[in-house]
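Inputs:
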Amino acid sequence: MNILETEGLYHDFSGLLVLFDVNLEVKEGERHAIIGPNGAGKTTLFNVITGTYSPSRGRVTFKGKEVTGWKPHNLTRVGMGRSFQITSTFSRLTTFQNIRMGILSKRRIRFNLFRKVDKMQNITEETDDVLKRINLDGERDLPASMLSYGKHRSLEISMALATDPDLVMLDEPTAGMSRDETHHAVELIRRLTEGKTVVIIEHDMDVVFSLADRITVLHLGHILASGPPGEIRESQAVKDAYLGETEV
Ligand SMILES: Nc1ncnc2c1ncn2[C@@H]1O[C@H](COP(=O)(O)OP(=O)(O)OP(=O)(O)O)[C@@H](O)[C@H]1O
Ligand SMILES: [Mg+2]
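Outputs:
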């Protein structure tokens, strides 16, 4: 079953056509990478799917339900989570407080009608548990702004997952990371997204080919190819348009 589909999606910025007849299919439980050159429209596609923009034309379907033009908070409520290309943690809050914020928002969303958020003890324990799993327990009480770049991005990935989404969309989670940090981030993503559906925009081909079950190539606002990694690696159209002479 497809957990996410776009049909005939178009988007323009004041007449500049950025997405052009995009038909994306993401199967439940897969890790799906979206690749393509700078300016291909990847982030815009995320923004249209996650409700930051309404598409000029076309439909977005999530878990079998049309959600075109839904606001981000309504999409979060039905199980869609995302991270941003630019870091979006709360820099003055501590690592602990950032994670707790994500957990609280999940509680409010899921249990608002039935109980008040008064079990702070449980939430503290759950937050500390998450911090351990993401290896940030040593930085628990540091403001997010004091974390190293790699740890900061890890925190952000974790916040996208703190709402326990069924689908998580990650926009370049390893951007700007060192080799080592990238390796850790990939392991973190792998661990935290077990059994979930992931759509990840990524430029690092090592990450793409080690993580993805399927790859969609976006080029000049439309889908050039979509398929398993082996097929994408062999595709002449992809090599010509995107990978150029690069060996992948
Ligand atoms: N808010 C905006 N207003 C006008 N044009 C925009 C806006 N956001 C993006 N664009 C343009 O839309 C096109 C696609 O941009 P987008 O950010 O979606 O690309 P991308 O594939 O994510 O690129 P990158 O790999 O560099 O992140 C680009 O030409 C960009 O300049
Ligand atoms: Mg982008």
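Remarks. Confidence is low (pLDDT under 50) at residues 109-115. The chain has nine helices and eleven strands.
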